Amino acid sequence: MAEKSQRRWPTPDILKRAMFVDDAGPIRFVDTEAAARYLALEAHTLECYRSLGGGPAYHKFGKWVRYAVDDLDSWAESCRRVTTASPAAPRVLPIDRT
Predict the structure, then answer these.
(1) How far apart are CA 22 and CA 85, in angstroms?
(2) Does any domain span residue 6?
(3) From CA 55, how far away is CA 71, in angstroms rounded?
């Protein structure tokens, strides 16, 4: 059985038509892996938050999930606590690794 070739994004056709600029400004959106590194979490944790709720807001561009850096900062700030007696943080569900 022949393996399907892996699709590459962006495709060579899109790259030919793309207009590249020297400076597109600050990065506004990151993928799940980069968002997880930014928050010091596992990518799987963010995937679970997307399913179960309680995580940072995200955007869907077609089939691609992206996080706005401002939303990551806002969510991280909402999780900030001074003491364990602070008001309840957003519910963070444990991940079952079995």
Answers:
(1) 49
(2) no
(3) 10
